[in-house]
Amino acid sequence: MFSFYYESFLALLLIAGLALAVLTPLYLLWKIIGALRQLLTETDRLNHNLIRLTETMAKTTAEPTSPPAEATPTPAPAPAATPTPTPVSPSATALPPQASALPPPLPPAGVSQPQAETAFQPSQPPPTPLTPPPPKPEQPLAPQTTPSTPEKPPAPPRQAKPWEIAARRKLRQTWNWFLCGQADGPGTQPLEKLAATTWLLRAGVCVILFTVGFMLKLSIHQGWLAPSGRVALTFVAGAALLFWSLRLLNGAYRVMGQAILGLALATFYFGAFAATGMYHLIGPILGFVVMVAITAAAGFMAVRFDSIAVAVIATVGGYATPILLETGSKNFPVLFAYMFILGIGVLTVAAYRDWLPLNWLGLFFTYTLFIGAWQTHYVPVDFPVLITALTLFFVQYSTVVFIHNVAQKKPSSTLEIIALLANAALFTGCAYRLIATVTEDRLWFAPLTLSLAAFYVAHAFWFLRRKHHDRGLLLTFIGLSALFLTLTVPLVFAREWIGVTWSLLALLMLWLGQNLDSAFLRSAAWILYTIVIVRLTGSDFLRAYGRPQATLDTALFWRQFAERLVQFGAPLASLAAAARLASRPTPPGDLAIPPKCDLKPRPLPLPFPPTAIAVAIAAILFFLYCNFETFRTFGYLFPPFCLPAQTILWLLWGVAIFHVAARHPHPAWKALLLALIVIIVGKVIFWDFLSWSPCCRFRYATFTWTECVMRLVDFGPLIAFLIALAILLRDREELIARIAAILWPALLFLYSTWEVNTMLGHLMPKLCAGGISVLWGAFAAAFIYRGLTTSQRPLRYLGLALFAIVVGKVFLYDLDRLGNVHRVFAFLLFGLLLMAGAFFYLKFWQSDRSEKVD
How far apart are CA 793 and CA 797, in angstroms? Predict the structure, then answer.
């Protein structure tokens, strides 16, 4: 047993040494980088001040100076005429120019006047210095050009936040204690002396502890002392060390006294463990009492002598007592009661001496002991005891912020917030696993998360009512309440309803953020909406519309239809309501979060407002939902209508975009409309058209009246939409109108060719070849007519080329395949079309509009 603890202690010592060897260079590098950053900041500030000083001096020297400053000291006679009406005494005129600069208390020596007036005094030099006025105004013009393009001063260095300053101070104190044994740093004493003294003492204490262990081990092997003598010798050595340390604590060797006091306490703990666990000289209860007494005495001496090192030893010893005195039997109530009382003592000592790291140490050991006892001795019957103890530990360490920050009115730092989050995370994880051991019903997890949300909401409400302006803690409480309220959804509800509940929760957060004027809540709401959108597009659509439905009965189909309507309709409606809510101004309220306790609103680098983006995302999701639902619903009710229904749906979206683009003429809407046109045309040609199995003989593989009607419903609305765009946008958007004017004849030609040929092939096979010729001739005549009336040469050429193709087809292909009656009828119609084309040319060229032809 002793060798096990000995080897474990050596392993821990080795790990600590390696960690120290790795972290010390990193910390020194971090300090050097920080010093260099501060030096660069100060250098930039000095450069900025120097530039401003240089510009100020340049402006000052560039101003026009008075003639006395440039005149020679030789006096000159007064000019015949002076431009200033101010009378000057004769004595002043006889003085040299320097006399005019004398102060006012000496009136006999001259009269003091402003600089602008002395330039015209009779005592000034002759007109020679007055001749430069033409170049003089040019001198200040050069520097005056600089203010027209002022240089933007460099941004001031970022000011550290209060919690950042507090965190740095506490980390610095912890590092100072770790390095030189005192939280305030070396001060006026040399760092080398303090660091060497501290670490030599710590190393000496460790070596002496090992020496004591080796001596006890040697005595055991040699049989020098009986077990009772060894334990007695250990306590005597501890008492001697304690007496020695108390003598040194009040003198110049206080640091050494603290080290020896820690050694004495470790010796007492070791002796109590040897008497109870190794040699069984006393019972576990008495050994427990002895160790508790040692812990209490250590805590008292830590407070009395203001030694955090002794407090750390007392904390470690107190939490190590259950491990050292483990008997193998289970006694959860006694163990957890002891841990709770010990935690109260740790919190009291830490609050009295302001030793915040002691709380973190107690938090770590509390959850470590709890998890260890739980994993070792737990059975489902112990659930009430463990969940009660876990809740007490959670509440106990949640009060640290009230003791340390609220009661003592200290601003929170990042370290307290991290400890608060760690406490919440550890409690939530342990409680979730505990509940999972007694039930598989997900509904029982709701009280856990809802209680935590209510717990932190009460904290935030208390902060707001008391007007306690601690931004870090308030935001942490609000964020934790929102987090646990959000976690309730996936823990309790089925996965189909997670998106619905999250979207409603996000809407609630946004409403609270608007009424409380909280940028934090608004940001959390939009983040939750982002998660909902990712979930909808990433998994919900695939899960809802990826299931086969061929074997569904009608009742089950309509039930699933209603579920999908709620599953996707509720988030979309929530997102639309959020966009409308965010566009409204924030109303004033009594419970509004103070600005300094909230996040600073920062504009996002977005080309559009967030509300517009939310509306656009809601529209895109609604578009996806309509597509999936249309395909799923009509695929079950009437499969042939699936493709035309999607085309009609997309055309309705095109009409909506056209309406918005007409009211808000933004280039984005026009580009979106053009992209939608291209997508719809591509879908109809490369998906719908090919799905009916067209062949190279200009007909479909099969013919039914149902398919014929579906193709008409598919192509007809698209062609009508393109014709409407070509007409309505003719004078506004030439590009879209031109593309629509090109696409609708091409689609009509494609549709009518295959449709007429398929219909004639199944109904009147002998007229099939002639019917296509007549159709193409009609298109050729129409192209020529349109090209002539609108002066478009490509249309005329296209009509002539199509006439040429039809003529070749008629004489090379149709003659052998048409019957006598059908041949007469087809050739008559085609001949009339050819004559109509010629008539169009003759009529056009004979009119006065012939000048318009290209």
Answer: 6
pLDDT at 111: 41
Write the CA distances from 174 to 263, 328, 422, 683, integer angstroms.
Answer: 21, 37, 20, 68
Closest CA to 10 of 277, 197, 196, 209: 209
Measured from the Cβ of residue 127, the count of other Cβ atoms closer than 10 Å reads 9
Structure token pair of residue 789: 């009336």
Q: Which residue has the tokens 């999701």?
A: 621
Instruction: Categorize the per-residue pLDDT at 88 as very low, low, confident or very high, splitting at 50, 70 and 90.
Output: very low
Q: Is the pTM of this model over 0.85?
A: no
Angstrom distances, CA of residue 282 to CA of 162, 272, 286, 289, 384: 54, 9, 6, 11, 33
DSSP per position, 507-530:
HHHHHHHHHHT-HHHHHHHHHHHH
Q: Which residues contact 564 (CB under 8 A, 6 or more apart)?
A: 544, 629, 632
**Helix (H, G, I), strand (E, B), or coil: what is residue 818?**
coil
Question: Whole-angstrom Cα distance, residue 354 to residue 308?
Answer: 10
Structure tokens at 691: 């799905």
The whole-number pLDDT of residue 176 equals 66
Question: In whole angstroms, what is the distance from residue 725 CA to residue 212 CA?
Answer: 97
Work out the average pLDDT over 99-125. Answer: 42
With bands split at pLDDT 50, 70 and 90, how would you rate the model's confidence at 161? low
The 8 Å CB, 24+ separation contacts for 443-446 are: 443/492, 445/488, 445/491, 445/492, 446/488, 446/491, 446/492
Cβ atoms 405, 411 nearer than 8 A:
yes
pLDDT tens, position by position, 538-596: 777 877 787 666 566 778 888 888 888 888 888 888 888 888 888 777 655 544 555 55
Q: What is the pLDDT of residues 425-476, one digit of tens each?
A: 899 889 989 998 998 887 888 889 899 989 998 888 888 777 776 766 777 7
* Rounded Cα–Cα distance for residues 854 and 845 (Å): 12
Answer for the pair 491, 433: CB distance below 8 angstroms, yes or no.
no
Q: According to the model, what pLDDT value does residue 187 have?
A: 60
Residue type, 269: Y
Rounded CA gap, 804 and 783, in Å?
A: 13
> CA-to-CA distance for 582 and 342, rounded, in angstroms?
50
Question: Which residues, in sequence order, are bridge partners of residue 700?
Answer: 694
Joined tokens for residue 30: 């971090």
- Retrieve residue 673's tokens: 């409309």
Separation between Cα atoms, residue 698 and residue 713, nearest integer Å: 20
Task: Please answer whether residues 453 and 199 qualify as being in contact, where contact means their C-beta atoms are separated by less than 8 angstroms.
Answer: no
**C-alpha span between 679 and 705 (Å, rounded):** 28
Contacts of the segment 300-304: beta carbons below 8 A, 24+ positions apart: 301/261, 302/349, 302/353, 303/349, 303/352, 303/353
d(CA 400, CA 349): 12
Residue 92: the pLDDT is: 39
* Cα dist from 623 to 643, 654, 685, 752, whole Å: 15, 11, 21, 30
Indicate the SS3 state at residue 694: strand
CB contact at 8 A, 91 and 75: no
SS3 of 775, please? helix
Asked if 359 and 403 touch (Cβ cutoff 8 Å), the reply is no
pLDDT bucket at 423, cuts 50 / 70 / 90: very high
The partner residues of 578 in beta bridges, in order of sequence, read none
Residues 6 or more apart whose Cβ sits within 8 Å of residue 230:
216, 219, 220, 274, 279
Quick check: 419 pLDDT over 60?
yes
Structure confidence at residue 847 (pLDDT): 45
Q: What is the dihedral of CA 494, 499, 503, 504, to 10 degrees?
A: -20
CA distance 403 to 487: 29
3-state secondary structure of 286: helix
Instruction: Note the pLDDT tens digit of each residue in 725-779.
Output: 888 887 777 788 888 888 988 899 899 888 888 888 777 776 666 677 778 878 8
pLDDT score, position 346:
93
